[in-house]
């Protein structure tokens, strides 16, 4: 069940792990951290060991024809847009028509789906994507643009 909206919307999730992840976003100067990040040069920061960690990314959005539906089994994604705008395609695993090979080291598989929904994220918005949510992030809306995003990985309890 994907959930998206502002930090206030996301903060209604009651898990201690979610609270730690959101507190990290609220209490840190994200601009300072992004000074160390460039396209194809992400930065990973541990928040609570490997239970909760953040990946700071800067990238150019891609076309919908380049989209790949990805899934995870060990982690929930909290994806937060710091600057820019993108759309994310989402489909429940029940819409999967072909599961891709799972890489347990990367907690990642690329799978095919019958159909999907999409939503738009702008600066200051984020979403929670659970293991049952296949998703294709980083998709252009009107024209390719540069996005600064933090993906916080939250271990599934």
Helices and strands, with pairings:
Elements: E1 3-6, H1 7-10, H2 16-27, H3 30-34, E2 43-48, E3 52-60, E4 69-71, E5 75-83, E6 85-92, E7 96-98, E8 109-113, E9 117-122, E10 125-129, E11 133-139, E12 146-155
Antiparallel strand pairs: 1-10, 2-3, 3-12, 4-8, 5-10, 5-12, 6-9, 6-11, 7-8
Polypeptide structure, described:
With 157 residues, the chain is mainly beta. The chain has a single domain, classed as Jelly Rolls (Sandwich). It has 3 helices and 12 strands; from the N terminus they run βαααβββββββββββ. It has helices at 7-10, 16-27, 30-34, and strands spanning 3-6, 43-48, 52-60, 69-71, 75-83, 85-92, 96-98, 109-113, 117-122, 125-129, 133-139, 146-155. The strands form 3 sheets. The protein has a 6-stranded antiparallel β-sheet. A 3-stranded antiparallel β-sheet has the order 4-8-7, with no helix packed on it. A hairpin with a 3-residue loop joins strand 2 and strand 3. It is globular and about 40 Å long. The model has no long low-confidence stretch (mean pLDDT 93).
């Amino acid at each position: 069940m994907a959930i998206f909206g502002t930090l206030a919307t996301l903060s209604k999730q009651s898990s201690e792990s979610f609270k730690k992840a959101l507190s990290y976003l609220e209490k840190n100067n994200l601009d300072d951290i992004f000074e160390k990040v460039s396209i194809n040069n992400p930065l990973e920061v541990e928040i609570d060991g490997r239970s909760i960690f953040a990946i700071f990314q800067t990238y150019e959005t891609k076309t919908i024809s380049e989209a790949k539906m990805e899934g995870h089994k060990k982690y929930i994604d909290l994806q937060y847009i710091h600057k820019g705008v993108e759309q994310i395609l989402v489909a429940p695993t029940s819409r999967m028509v072909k599961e891709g090979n799972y890489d347990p080291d990367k907690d990642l598989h690329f799978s095919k789906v019958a159909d999907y929904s999409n939503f738009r994220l702008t600066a200051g918005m984020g979403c929670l994507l659970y293991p049952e949510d296949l998703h294709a992030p980083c998709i252009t809306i009107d024209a390719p643009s540069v996005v600064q995003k933090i993906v916080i990985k939250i271990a599934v309890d």
